[in-house]
## 1
Amino acid sequence: MLHLKVGGVPEHFNYPWYITLKNKAYTKEGINLRWQDFPGGTGAMSKALREGSIDIAIVLTEGIIKDIIDGNPSKIIQTYVKSPLIWGIHVGAKSKFKSINDLENATVAISRYGSGSHLMAIVNAYNNGWDINKLQFKVVKNLQGGIDALTNGEADYFMWEHFTTKPLVDNGTFRRLGDCPTPWPCFVVAIRDEVLEKHPEEIKKVLEIINSCTADFKDIENIDETLAIRYEQQLEDIQEWLSITEWNDGKPITENLLTDIQNKMIGFNVISEKINSNRLIKIL
């Protein structure tokens, strides 16, 4: 039995992993797969990959590209969710800020440097024509840290996935001033090099199982109601999210796509250098 650990954010995107684990789909193939939640997001998962405490990560595309360039001994295997991630731009309920333009010189809460909340704050600043070098960051570790920082005034705004934070907008904890979609597919599957070298066939089997589940995910009976209850979301919000979310279709990720993403990241000043895209991916 091969033991593998997979990490991801505790959000609706990763419910297919819950389904396949509950069904013991991996155990039937001789793989003891264990899931670990990472509320801290991609920055925390990148660190866990480096340290070897997880083998597989469902991570934000921009975050893992940056971390592999910075020396993370892992590879991107495939796209997991190919549609963009919608990042909500939030301020505290009592904030003086009324529009995105008001945030130019404000302090942005981020989970950690190199995380999606950090990199997308840079993308948002670029989109609005702000001086990226003047951005001020406050590290808050996770969503709860963002809530605390905006509530007590340690930071002014916080970017997090639109639908995950929607209940906080509904209950008056946050006000959302707008959205910033990623200009690339949002989630990829990244795996440590050592695991890829030793167990390529088992990794292929894991991907076959999860891709089979995501292919039919929207057709699961009452999946919208299930997700709404599990993630404490309004049913109409889950239905909207399902309508705009597209998972991987089983095709391998291409060097051309990653080169295009790197070009955009260079343009956004999110990475300082570009590497050959074949160093970022492994085709099984």
Note: The chain has a mean pLDDT of 95.
## 2
Amino acid sequence: MSRTYSVDEVSKHTAPTDLLLIIDGKIYDVSNFKEEHPGGEDFLLDQGGKDVTELFEDASHRPEAREILSTLTVGTVPSDVRLSPILDE
């Protein structure tokens, strides 16, 4: 069962064994997917705890990527929260 996370709460999940990302208002636990990520483990570790919606969409992922994401869903952010990506410059 998924739960609702605050953006602040997600931002604290940046450890390799506890790695969450936000994409389109959903929370994904990518802790066990790091080694399989085509962009590399370091990319996910660098983005841990952030809203990566823009990065995900810009990468033009194949439909299979969304299928994988569906298996990693652990929650959502409140629907009244408008997220903006927090990207490292």
Note: Strands lie at 3-4, 14-15, 18-23, 26-29, 73-76.
## 3
Amino acid sequence: MTTPSQTVGPFFGYALPYAQGGELVPEDHPGAITVTGRVLDGEGEPVPDALLELWLGETGTRGALDRRGPGVSGFGRCPTAPDGSYRFRTARPATPYLALLVFARGLLKPVATRIYLEDAPDPLLDSLEPALRATLIARAETADAYVFDVRLQGEEETAFLEF
């Protein structure tokens, strides 16, 4: 007998978010970038209780949860603030994108997407129509700061991946 799926969240704040979860690299890491944004629902309203996981293709010299030393962690987890905002500090990826999982109320399972730091040739991006493609590209504010909003539904809904 199979147990039916249930929506995820709201999240009990013990052990899912953890101290410095959005900091994949130390403050002084050379070439570090910051990715910020907001998670928005179908009406464009902030989702204050989502949980995001950011994954790098390579993990460097440290374990995923180890935030000590000069290396790069390959994994970060960050809850959204009351205004739906989030923030990650990470190394620039070796691939053209960062992988992002979004857990939010109303979802049966987390949704996966990618954060592209620029509009460059890529098999996934090349396969998408321009409007959908645009939902995966972060807006550069400076050379090391990017903004990427996640829209769960509605106009300009973020492209989510199926595996």
Note: The domain at 32-151 is CATH 2.60.130.10 (Protocatechuate 3,4-Dioxygenase, subunit A).
## 4
Amino acid sequence: MSALPSLYVSHGSPMTALQPGATGARLAELARALPRPKAIVIASAHWLARAPLVGGAAQPETIHDFHGFPPELYQLRYPAPGAPALAARVTELLDQAGLAPRLDPQRGLDHGVWVPLHLLYPAADIPVVPLSIQPELGPAHQYAVGRALAPLREEGVLVIGSGSITHNLHDFRAGYSSEREAPYVRPFIGWIEQKLSAGDVDAMLDYRRQAPFAQRAHPTDEHLLPLYVALGAAGDGAHAQRIDAGIDLGFLAMDIYRFDGPRPD
């Protein structure tokens, strides 16, 4: 089996699970285009910790980590099995990289995990290992986490980062919509696409200073940091493919990225 790509997905609002729109269509297409993975390791913007935590539950619960949504959303479950042996392997790889991971034997799947996986693999029959991010440590740390996990791609494991390419929830009250987009969204996502297409990792790691409207697109880092896990897992010289899934509510860009290893000469 050839190495799998790594992915970054914008999961958007929890309502994406009930109203998948363009995001659901693009994720379903992507799942059909990929070899079926043996397992999935997914870093979620909604699991924050000071050091990498690895979910090792044999049957992780579905976590409804949100409030004020329709009752049917709370009835959804994603009953994918866990993978304790893979969780131990992830912990070992991160430990070898000096990243001081810890195993969490009870962690379930938050909506940053189950919303996109519900659209990618609705049968919920692929084992899942969730992974925390470390917002206090920044992009370079998350890139190192991804680099440590790169060998998993050769083992049939799909490494995913789940966040949002733009994420400023203050703009819920700003009156943006499909007819009136926030002015920072397209310049920011265009810069990200340009730097990823050029393989400019240094610029990406310095996005806070270099990207247009970075502070507006991400008042805090946690929803962009999973991108660096996916980028790091792809290895040196990776080819980045942007998949446009639209802009929700006028300010939540739903970009998906597929990272493949270097193209053969």
Note: The chain is about 35% helix and 20% strand.
